[in-house]
Structures are given as C-alpha cells and as structure tokens.
C-alpha cells in the first residue's frame, strides 16, 4: 500500500532465455525483520527472499539456484542508498552479478527520499546492464 515514506514498487525475476518467472515481490510484502532488515522490505529483496525460502536457504546464498541468465524487472530503479542503513537493492543485485546481468526498470528512483541515487551508474560499473522502459511499470504491476 502507498504511504508517505515509501513508493509502491513491484519486481519480477525471470529466466532470460525461457521467460519463466522465478519469483515476484513488492514493497513491504514480507516483514521488515527478515534477512537483517529492520526497515521495510523492498520489492527486489522480496524476490530474493522468496527464492531462498522455497529452498530453505538464506537470501545471500541463492546464486547457485538461479539460471545463468536471470533478468530482473522492476517498475522503479533499484536503490543504491537506504535511509535505514540496511543493505541496498544494488548491493543485493551486485552480489548476484554472475547470474543477474540485466535489470529492466520502468523509471529511475526519484529524488524524493534519497537525493542523487546513483543505482544505474553503480550497476553499470559492475557490468550489469540497466535498461529503462516506461511500459514496464504497467507490466510489473499486472503480474502482482
């Protein structure tokens, strides 16, 4: 649900070769105390946690479960800073960069909460392609 201190974000993790959906997530879908996050869970984070839960692993150990060409779709660019001090979505994506090489976003994260979010530059510096498509906003939200 929308709130004065958060965006409504949805994310989908899919096999880049077959299009098969591996996981979906949305903002605050899972409790904020999960995986060392004392704040609200982000959409991308929920995707990763749900895969981990399915296989009884911690979210930090899912890389071996992912297909070689996993793609992340999200209606808003991944965060590169968090006011709570918790691990960022960019950090989580970079940790999976051997399998997660492409991120499609609907819009960049606005400067509402974090001014000058450099998520795009951070991911691209790590060799991860970030593509923007405003049509993606509608597609991700329909899957939720």
From TrEMBL:
Any single biological process term in GO: nucleobase-containing compound metabolic process
Gene Ontology MF terms in the entry: catalytic activity
CMP/dCMP-type deaminase domain: residues covered: 1-116
Name the UniProt record assigns to this protein: CMP/dCMP-type deaminase domain-containing protein
């Amino acid at each position: 649900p929308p709130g004065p201190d958060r965006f409504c974000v949805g994310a989908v993790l899919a096999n880049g070769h077959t299009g098969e959906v591996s996981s979906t997530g949305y903002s605050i879908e899972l409790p904020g105390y999960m995986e060392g996050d004392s704040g609200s869970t982000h959409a991308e984070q929920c995707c990763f946690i749900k895969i981990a839960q399915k296989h009884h692993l911690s979210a930090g150990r899912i890389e071996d479960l992912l297909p070689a060409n996993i793609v992340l779709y999200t209606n808003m660019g991944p965060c590169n800073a968090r006011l709570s001090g918790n691990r960022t979505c960019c950090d989580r994506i970079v940790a999976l960069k051997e399998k997660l090489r492409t991120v499609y976003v609907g819009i960049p994260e606005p400067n509402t909460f974090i001014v000058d979010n450099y998520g795009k530059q951070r991911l691209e510096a790590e060799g991860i392609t970030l593509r923007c498509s405003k049509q993606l906003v509608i597609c991700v939200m329909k899957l939720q």
